[in-house]
Amino acid sequence: MPAPPPPSARNALLRPALPAALLLFLAVTLRSGAMDNTVRFLDHDAGVLALVSLSATVLWGLAATDQLVLHTPHRLLAQAVHRATGVAGLGFLGLHIGVKAVEGHTTATAAAVPFTDGARPLLIGCGTLAAYGFLTVAVSGAVRGAFAGRTTARWWWALHTVAYACWALALLHGLKSGRAAAGWAVAGYGMALAGVAVRLALRLRAPLRIPGGEPR
């Protein structure tokens, strides 16, 4: 009985097969029209998914700071969900911007430079500002270790608070610049906005405690 080929030989055989399978998949997808359906779905719903994900990010971020109800394991779980929904929101946001530019609903310049859209400068500009703000907050979260000192931790906290203003701009952009939102969606976002406003007001009134120099 012949010996099986070594792993290196099997890998060498698989390398050309993977690109060929990918090309075959893309050809079948284009032929069947699935790509058009995907683009149509992203055109209509990528922005909604981004707004829902980023709304969840804000809410879970606030939940992660609670010390009255949640214990440490629960706060750690809330932080993990906060990060996961943030990554998902940024991914959907990138798809939303790219598809809208490709489909001609706005221009790349208007998507990059606030308030330069020819048809709806204010609403599209709010979305652009929100996108820059969320990206800045995400970067600051990724390099949180650079703000480990007590003084720099306050800068991190102030920078992270920008997310709330960005979320409000994203809500305005999402609810007014696209198709009319359902009544339940408007009510849900309104309740979320009110809840965040109350929780943020309570948090701002409380003294900022940074045990051991770690930011909160």
From TrEMBL:
Alphabetically sorted, this entry's keywords are: Membrane, Transmembrane, Transmembrane helix
Transmembrane segments annotated in the record for this chain? 49-69, 122-143, 155-175, 181-202
- Protein name per UniProt: Ferric oxidoreductase domain-containing protein
Biological source species: Streptomyces noursei
